[in-house]
Amino acid sequence: MADLFGSNDSKQTDDVSRPLADRLRPGDLSQVSGQEHLTGPDGALTRMIETGVLGSMIFWGPPGTGKTTVARLLAGFGDYAFVQISAIFSGVGELKKVFELARAHRQSGKQTLLFVDEIHRFNRAQQDSFLPVMEDGTVILVGATTENPSFELNAALLSRARVLSFKSHNDDSVAALIKRAEDVEGKKLPLDDEGRASLIRMADGDGRAVLTLSEEVWRAAREDEVFDAEGLAEIVQRRAPVYDKSQDGHYNLISALHKAVRGSDPDAALYYLTRMFDAGEDPLYLGRRLVRMASEDIGLADPQALLIANAAKDAYDYLGSPEGELALAQACVYLATAPKSNAVYVAYKAAMRDAKQHGSLMPPKHILNAPTKLMKDEGYSDGYQYDHDAPDAFAAQDFFPDNLGRQVYYDPPERGFERDIRKRLDFWNKRRNET
């Protein structure tokens, strides 16, 4: 299994045919780099090991951050039987065999450390099957996942395991991995300074990826050839960003875009928008999200925002890529720089709460049409005043159901176009109070 973090000097020269990442696998927790918050002197794993008692854990983090490597190393800190399975290839039958083996180990006085890679791939019933063997101490479960455990793992399973977050490598730890790789290979990577910086960016925080890319560079380079950033991109054909449109990467970036627009930061908003363009997100999805932002966060503070967002979505639909993305970028900047108001959004939610809570309340009869004599006799339309016949086209009538009474949902702030709306509402409310 590949390691991404450090090296075991005693093994560095073994079997040069093995992948570089495998040859750099650490033989001790102290050699794991990039996860000092877990493996450093005061790290969570370090403290757990010092107590001599391991508990069940979920390792959550991006690919290439060392989850598998650390799980293997943990098994060496006690008299544990180590079993490793992958949820991708294992089913109910495989789990039963593993649990039977763990029970056999327990009878001989040995506890089993069960490492489950991609644990989020198990369905809920399969996840529940771990609960009895975790509760009775038959296994110490160490699960690894790249997905948010809050969404992908059962609450019952999470309540019995500690979630430890693994971080993406930063530039310094990626650079340190490259240096270790050069030490193992006994030669420098054929990259100039710009090429080296570009390689670090291409790794995107994935230690395994940077070592794989480094091997590609060494294989491609002719004698005395040195690549710059452009040459590197041609050689490795540029690694795609880590992004899954149905998983955390998608939700994290759309959340960042929405909050940047709401926070009136056009530069950050453009950055996240283009991040998603670059990762292959559907531009029409982004167009729809911009329309939502226009309604939720700008509303009537700038009524043009919704029109512009909708027009940008339609423009992309008409033009396609790559021309249509510019229309979405234009709308993104417009929304980020527009005055902000969530008054309509708040009013809508408040009105919806009352609509659900109070059920089928009858509107007041004076605002209901009376097309039949019976309805007229019942008081339908009695007392209705036609607003256009009243001064200022405002008759100051009450339109709420009698059993509900007048409510105030919409409270526009003194910003943008809503400043004028505020003045009109204040005038109308004063007239209502006078009647």
Structure description:
The structure is a single chain. The chain is an alpha/beta fold and 435 residues long. Helix content is 51%, strand content 7%. It has a 5-stranded parallel β-sheet with strand order 2-3-4-1-5, with helices on both faces. Mean pLDDT is 87; it is low at 1-14.
In terms of structural class, how would the helical and strand content be classed? Answer: alpha/beta
Number of structural domains: 4
How do the strands line up in the largest sheet? Answer: 2-3-4-1-5
Give the overall form: flat
Q: How many distinct beta strands?
A: 5
The CATH class of the largest domain is identified as Alpha Beta
Mean pLDDT: 87
Order of helices and strands: HHHEHEHEHHEHHEHHHHHHHHHHHH
Share of β-strand residues: 5-15%
The assigned CATH architecture of the largest domain is 3-Layer(aba) Sandwich
The end-to-end distance, rounded to whole angstroms, is 80 Å
CATH superfamily of the largest domain: P-loop containing nucleotide triphosphate hydrolases
Characterize the largest beta sheet: strand count, sense, and whether it forms a barrel.
5 strands, parallel
Q: How much helical structure, as a percent, in the residues? A: 40-55%
> Runs with pLDDT <50, length 5+?
1-14
Could you tell me the radius of gyration in angstroms? 31 Å
| Number of contiguous helices | 21
CATH fold type of the largest domain: Rossmann fold
